[in-house]
Amino acid sequence: MQHKRAFALPSLRAWLAAGQWLVTLLLCAFLIVPVVMSILAGLTVNYFQGVASGLTLRWLGEVWTQYHASVFLSLEIALATLVITLLTGVPAGYVLARSESRASRIIEEFLVLPIALPGLASALALLVVYGGFTMFRTSVAFIVVGHVVFTLPFMVRAVAAVCASSGLRTLEEGAASLGASFFQRFITIVLPNVRPGIVAGALAVVTLSIGEFNLTWMLHTPETKTLPVGLADTYASLRIEIGSAYTILFFIMTMPLLVAMQWLGVDATGQRNTRQKKTRVIDTTSSAENQS
After folding, report:
1. Overall domain count for the chain
2. How confident is the model over 249-285, as pLDDT tens digits?
3. So what's the pLDDT on residue 278?
4. Are residues 84 and 25 both part of a single domain?
5. Is residue 10 part of a domain?
6. Of the candidates 6, 35, 56, which is a domain's last residue?
7. One domain, residues 29 and 148
8. More confident of the two residues 287 and 25
């Protein structure tokens, strides 16, 4: 007699895993499908007829013709914001990480306030204080100041997280015992070892600056219209194909930055590439010894 093989039911763990995958896929579809539909709307001849009406690059051409100045302006503002946050945020993050006083903790909390407050509130504060200076109010520099206020905490926190590591403090003390000056230690020890935090902060600053809308909408003028403000205008006043094509342009600009953040795998704690980091630590220590 042949015994029938018993049919084994999936275990509870397998059902839970399947349920997690199902929820994850549904959430991904919920987020991705609207983006895909918007992109298709910007590439179809007629949105209401769908793909059946044919595909075209006409709407992208019209968006570029009308709003290419906003694209370049957004890039200029993002680069200017990045330069200022690098020059101020890297030293500030280093000092806050090294200081153990209560004042430094209070300053750090104040730096985070622009993130906690709505962008409109920060923009209103800038308008109340500096709105009376007409030349400054109508210039691109006014928007850059707003973006620096909003993005500086991301640079400071990213750099401070790396500078707070005990290994970096030990390297600095070792270099100081060998006669290296503060400037030598900062250039040869600190900057190479906090590079992961600087890269993470820089990518965050550029991405946030390009995509910032609330604060920029309050601060902009007709001559200083950035990419997100132009996107809102296209959806409000033009046909949906133009607005969707503008979304494609916005997507093309921001997606490489997001991919770069994932590809580099750099987080705010600087814990990527441990082996390479150890090698870099040895090299920087040797460099400090040679210079001393």
Report:
1. 2
2. 888 887 887 777 677 655 444 444 444 444 444 454 4
3. 45
4. no
5. no
6. 56
7. no
8. 25
In sequence order, the β-bridge partners of residue 55 are: 44
| Residues in CB range of 82: below 8 A, 6 or more apart | 202, 205, 206, 209
Q: Which two tokens stand for residue 2?
A: 């042949």
In this structure, are 107 and 42 located in the same domain?
no
| Mean pLDDT value across residues 191-201 | 85
Instruction: Kindly state whether residues 209 and 167 are assigned to the same domain.
Output: yes
pLDDT at 282: 47
Cα 88-284-204 angle, rounded to 5 deg? 35
Query: 126, 142 in Cβ contact below 8 A?
Result: yes
The answer to whether the beta carbons of residues 188 and 291 sit under 8 Å apart is yes
What is the amino acid identity at position 74?
S
Nearby residues of 150 by Cβ (< 8 Å), 6 or more positions away: 114, 115, 119, 122, 208, 212, 215
88/160 same-domain check: yes
Nearest to 85 by CA among 186, 159, 140: 159
Task: Quote the pTM value.
Answer: 0.74
Based on the domain organization, do 198 and 259 belong to the same domain?
Answer: yes
Distance CA 150, CA 114 (A): 5
Residues 27 and 160 placed together within one structural domain of the fold:
no
Q: What is the domain extent for residue 21?
A: 16-56
In a domain, 147, yes or no: yes
Token pair of 139 as six digits = 């210039």
Which has more pLDDT, 82 or 213?
Answer: 82
Tokens linked to 204:
């965050």
CA angle 149, 153, 155 (to 5 degrees): 110
Same domain, 213 and 139: yes
289 within 8 A of 178, measured Cβ to Cβ: yes
CA dist 171 and 194 (Å) reads 13
